[in-house]
Specification:
With 321 residues, the chain is of the alpha+beta class. It has helices at 25-33, 35-38, 41-51, 78-82, 97-100, 124-128, 157-164, 201-204, 257-261, 304-307, and strands spanning 64-65, 109-114, 120-123, 134-141, 146-156, 172-177, 196-200, 210-215, 218-219, 229-231, 244-250, 285-288, 294-296. It has ten helices and 13 strands. Strands 1, 4, 5, 8, 9, 10, 12 and 13 form an eight-stranded mixed β-sheet that branches.
Length: 321
Amino acid sequence: MNVIRRRGWEMPERLATPEHLFFNRRALLGLTAGAAAAGLAPRIALAQRAADQPDPTIDLYPGKRNERYVLDRPITDEKINGNYNNFYEFGTSKSIAKAAQALKIRPWTIKIDGMVEKPFEIGIDDLVRKFPIEERLYRHRCVEAWSMAVPWSGIPMTKLIELAKPLSSAKYVRMETFLDKAMAPGQKSWAPWPYVEGLTIAEATHELTFLATGAYGKPIPKQHGAPIRLAVPWKYGFKHIKSIVRVSFTDKRPKSYWEDLQASEYGFWANVNPEVAHPRWSQASEELIGTGERRPTLLYNGYGEFVANLYKGLESERLWA
């Protein structure tokens, strides 16, 4: 991770990708090339028609806004937010939106396993239709010292945990993203793929912990971690794992992706604290993307009234990234 050195949202309009492109075009083109010999023309036609269809859950959005969570700043412009992202599976540039369109999000299955009553798998469309979709306005604070305000849509993580029925002995939730080096060129690097993150059971079942399946009143864009990502607004952004394919319950603390890469800089807890500097830069203030404005960083990103009690008795732990 690097400190911001340029305005990454200043992206040429020509690079914007239409929202309806939900399928991997290269895979579709490859399939088309062999269709004549394989006699797959009818399937190709169906795939082409499917590629032009909206997300099958689009009728669920926008969800009803949960008024319990309020912002102290304007919502970040959707275009700016959509073109300033970290998604290292597809590259290190902040202008990753175009490359992220290679992410194939249907079919998408989430595996639930580990210390649960009975492991199972569930398709994303089945999951999001099990519970009412709601909208939450959350601040998002990156460890790189920039911030956004996002209208996420989705479900509280408690809903998924209730569905999973973890054993009482489970103490942590380990989450994992997809692994597909052909689709995601960034995963060809030496880094410890797939991306892994973890929370304690207390954190995972907290009212703020959210599984986002939409943003700005629509299904979530690929560059934001479609079709389902984590939002834990009191923690630095690297904890907000994208494109989740596996949720495991365990009695051992998971070692996260960034902790595995550089434990001296990125820890397990990663709570926002303006008083604790990153080894290479200050966390005392943050830049609001799209405005250039700098604001003082808030302890727990401003959510201390909700979450500070989670960490009582843990003062000896390294609670801040």
